[in-house]
Amino acid sequence: MANAFYDGDFTVAQPQGPDVISFDPELRCHFLRRTMRQRAASFEKMGIGVSIATDFYLYKETEGRNVGADLLEWDRLAMELPPPRIMPEGYVHSYQFLSLGDEPIVEAQIPVTSHVYYSYSHVEDPTTIETLSARRYILIGSVVYRVGDLNVIESGPDEGWFLAEDSVIRNIRGNVWEHAKRYVPPFDPTMVT
Q1: Rounded distance, CA 172 to CA 78, Å?
Q2: 7 pLDDT exceeds 80?
Q3: Is residue 178's pLDDT more than 70?
Q4: pLDDT at residue 149 is higher than 90
Q5: Fewest CB atoms less than 10 Å from the CB: which of 2, 45, 144, 164?
Q6: Within 13 Å, how many C-alpha atoms sit on residue 146's CB side?
Q7: Average model confidence (pLDDT) for the chain?
Q8: Could you tell me how many helices (H) and strands (E) the chain has, helices first?
Q9: Smallest Cα–Cα separation from 139: which of 149, 130, 129, 147?
Q10: To which H or E segment does residue 173 belong?
Q11: E-only strand ranges, 40-164
Q12: Contact at 8 Å (CB) between 173 and 59?
């Protein structure tokens, strides 16, 4: 068989041909597909999250396909951890102000260009990733409460920008998680036209 590698009896899973590597331009990371063969009686899936090549983490194994002679063939799918990135996005933010007037909390909805900071983690338990809560004022009865944290960027080109909404964690694949944090610029009276 062309491009096949053998261990003699296939009791140990063996790669079949070269790895296929692709690039995801949105995540800016590489994905790996490795086709494997093994005797059906010895077949066992590998654990999700295991490193199967330098910096590539297994996120899925396809179901085994019977290829004859009591052999199963399947694919191991892995990805590398995407690099952190910052993406500008249009966003309408509700800036809040405390007032001594009839309404203790005043909101001004202003279109801005927000910056969404994306970072990635390879963890089994996503609850270990620290989430951030945006600061908001809420009115309960006649009492104003402040909830969340200010979470201000302290240096760099976005210095002084603050967290606009609670951060969001989502699963990309397997044990790879994305943490998105949206920041907006501080209020400036010139934003109001």
Answers
A1: 12
A2: no
A3: yes
A4: no
A5: 2
A6: 6
A7: 89
A8: 0, 14
A9: 147
A10: strand 168-173
A11: 51-53, 56-61, 65-68, 71-79, 85-98, 105-122, 136-140, 143-147, 162-163
A12: yes
Angle, CA of 152, 156 and 159, to the nearest 5°? 35
Task: For Cα atoms 129, 135, 136, give the angle at the middle one, nearest 5 degrees.
Answer: 135
Q: Residue 131 and residue 159: Cα distance in Å, rounded?
A: 20
Q: What's the full length of the chain, in residues?
A: 193
Name which of 59, 105, 104, 101 is nearest 79 in CA terms: 59
Is the separation of the CB atoms in 145 and 157 below 8 Å? no
Q: Which of 17-26, 57-66, 78-87, 92-101 has the lowest mean pLDDT?
A: 92-101
Instruction: With beta carbons less than 8 A apart as the criterion, state whether 13 and 72 touch.
Output: no
- The answer to pTM > 0.90 is no
Token couple for 69: 């002679």
Pairwise CA distance, residues 61 & 44, whole Å: 10
Dist CA 99 CA 81 (whole Å): 46
**Tokens found for residue 33:** 């597909």
CA distance 137 to 143: 10
Domain map (residue ranges) of the chain? 14-79, 85-191
Upper half-sphere CA count for residue 192 (Cβ side, 13 Å): 9
pLDDT band with cut points at 50, 70 and 90 for residue 123? very high
